[in-house]
């Protein structure tokens, strides 16, 4: 099975699994581990949580327009989480939008010396984005293969 065929058949489900794991992970860190989310974390949640529902419905309906619905959220999520990751690493100064009680440059976890919650969010948004671009490409390739080939008789 080609990658394009796999993404066409299972891309929506793959994106759903990624979005669900990211959502459950963020809920674990805030509700069970007790980490208070900063303002940028809330923005990332606002962009990730709807993806669970959107990708589930799109996968169930096998909607070929699913990438059109998902890509705006995932691309903006990549930007926010990328900015948040760079802020945590000190590349950007702490944002004025972040509250004093929960600063955006705080790192609650640091696995392997570089994997923070913002990096995990960036990874999830990036994977969803790549899956959606792959799905869109597969659907376009499929549609192009179904077009009639022009012949000299048609001119």
Explain this structure to me?
The protein is mainly α and 155 residues long. It is built from four helices and no strands. Helix 1 crosses helix 2 (39-61), helix 1 packs antiparallel against helix 4 and helix 2 packs antiparallel against helix 3 (66-88). The longest helix has 30 residues, at 3-32. It starts with a helix and ends in a 10-residue tail after the last helix.
Short descriptors:
mainly alpha, elongated, single chain
Task: Summarize, please.
With 155 residues, this protein is an all-alpha fold.
Helix/strand/pairing category: mainly alpha
The end-to-end span amounts to 38 Å
The H-and-E topology, N to C, reads as HHHH
> Helical amount among residues, as a percent range?
55-70%
Q: Helical segment tally?
A: 4
Give the oligomeric state of the chains in this entry, treating copies of one chain as homo and distinct chains as hetero.
single chain
What is the CA-based Rg, rounded?
A: 19 Å
The tally of strands reads 0
Strand content: under 5%
Low-confidence parts lasting 5 or more residues at pLDDT below 50? none
From the spread of the alpha carbons, the general shape counts as elongated
For the sheet with most strands, the description reads: none
Overall pLDDT level? 83
Helix and strand arrangement:
Layout: H1 3-32, H2 39-61, H3 66-88, H4 117-145
């Amino acid at each position: 099975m080609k990658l394009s065929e796999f993404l066409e058949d299972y891309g929506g489900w793959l994106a759903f699994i990624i979005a669900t794991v990211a959502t459950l992970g963020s809920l674990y860190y805030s509700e069970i581990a007790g980490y208070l989310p900063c303002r940028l974390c809330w923005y990332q949640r606002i962009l990730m949580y709807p993806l669970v529902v959107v990708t589930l419905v799109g996968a169930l309906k096998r909607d070929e327009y699913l990438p059109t619905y998902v890509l705006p959220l995932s691309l903006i999520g990549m930007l926010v989480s990328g900015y948040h990751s760079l802020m945590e690493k000190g590349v950007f100064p702490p944002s004025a939008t972040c509250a004093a009680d929960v600063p955006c440059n705080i790192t609650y976890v640091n696995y392997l010396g570089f994997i923070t919650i913002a990096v995990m969010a960036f990874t999830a948004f990036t994977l969803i984005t790549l899956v959606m671009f792959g799905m869109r490409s597969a659907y376009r390739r499929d549609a192009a293969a179904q077009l009639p080939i022009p012949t000299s008789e048609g001119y």
